[in-house]
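Q: What would this chain look like folded?
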Amino acid sequence: MHPWLRAAPLAISFTAQVALPSAALAQGEPAPINTPSKRLPGQVEIDAPSELRDLLNRHLDVVRLLQAGVPGELEFNRLLLAAPAQVRALLETEGYFAPAVEVVRASGDAPARIKVAPGPRVRVGAVRIVAAGPLGDALKQPDVDADLVALWRRVTAAWPLTEGSAFRVADWNGAKAAVLARLRAERFPNATLVNSEAEINAEEHRAMLRVELDSGPAMIFGQIRVEGLSRYPESSVLNLKTFGPGTVYSEKLLLDYQERLIKTGQFGGVSVSTEAASAAGQLDVIVRVQEQSAQQLTLSVGFDDAAGPRVGAEQVSRRVFGSDWTAKAVAQLGKTKQDLSTDFYSYPSENLYRWLVGAKRTRLVAGGLVTVDTSARLGRTRDTERIERTYYAETLYATALDRDTGQRGTAKAYSANYFWVHRDVDSVLLPTRGLTTSAQLSTGFASSSFAPNGPFTRLNARMTYYQPLGRRENRWYAIGRLEAGSVFARTEVALPESVLFRTGGDQSVRGYNYQSLGVERTDSQGKTVVAGGRYLATASAELARPISEKLSNFWIAGFVDAGNAGDTLRTLDPAVGYGLGLRWRSPVGPLNVDLAYGERTRKWRLHLTVGVAF
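A: My prediction, written as structure tokens:
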């Protein structure tokens, strides 16, 4: 036989098949099993490398029949006779084309054995990816559009089977799907795989791969239709799009649009799809929504270290007095801590800007000290595909009362603020690859009744990196996070607590209560209380993976967090927390349950978070 074996288009020619009974028992001449084994059928061992042994145990007919029950001796011997050919076919799917297979019949108390020496594995040689159809024709032109050249480079870069990598049928099929999906994601949603060939040189143990993709016609967006609206205006849906009729087709534009609609909270379900338009080369966009109720009330009962037993209520009005505004009022009332807040957001305008108005009041009793912080803000926010910007002015007013001495102090701060988020990830709701960066700049003036007044500047930055590790079928997902902050002001200037930094809790250092890490001070009763510091540094590392193929939306995770806040860089003494978690990657974002151990407190804490923090 010629050393090169050519596969048929679209399907590789060496897929595993059930072997015929006339197959050889070993690499050489057949050794028929004519005499019945002295050992009862139903006992056979496979001698092969562990990863291949698992494959053969799952798929060999003789093993599968034994697992179902003890077969007749004639049937057992027939399947044992057919096993070598089936072993070779199965090993070909893993890239082994020259295995040595030997069957040893049962003798006495020794079971039947199938010995497998897989031999060298086939490696990927040259790879050729060919464009056909309109894209292929355009790439051959001397004045080809630079955007098309860049697109084709992105398609070929998506090919995961690089030269020298191990050849496996599953990886081969996955690589074809990857480049096809990449081509369909931009301009050419009707692209097809018209031909694929894998030429296997069993003597040189090399696979020469060729894939041909027919792009089909380039497409643009046509009309946009909205279905399912009754209580909200159509503008609340259409204003969130970043494309219109005539825009070049992009799958990412559709996914980002869908995620942006989900984030509004107005819809319980959102589907953004396309269908052929009446005009050639166009796809109409169909937006189907399931509306949430205009009014929603949520009551809660709970316990936390800061407030003790608490009750809470959250009222959301998605059409305030019939206007294009959303209001959210939250109350959390505990024995030692009470939080009240109200926020108003306008519906997005055509340029995606929204107005925001908010106020918040927090009362905290810690030892003999009672502090009350009140703030109000006014500004605008804009959330686009990659960047979120918020500009606002804020007024802070804080009071502190020492109940033992009766002394009262007040502090105020007036500031202008800019908050910026940049997202370069594969999914805003469920990221697995990419980088998010956020930064906040505040500058203003602080005054108090017990210290000199003066200006201040506050900087805070946070980066989160997502990276998949390993092959797709056995992939882990790593997340790394860094955060740092600093307040610049004269040492003698007293700043409101909310301007300073504290850390600890769900999105920072797990294993500790929310904002329980900071500068430790002693109150008038001699108790240790935590106050904010002028510097902040935290870091986190997490490794997660799906529980199984069937439960791919449920992940297990392990993590380590460290960080703290302090008055100076030298006093930043990081607290460490670590633990295990469970992730549910729901259609509206991740739900995370973490059990973390705080080394300082020597206690375990349960953390529950919803969504991704930027």
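Residues 372-610 form a domain with the Porin fold (CATH 2.40.160.50).
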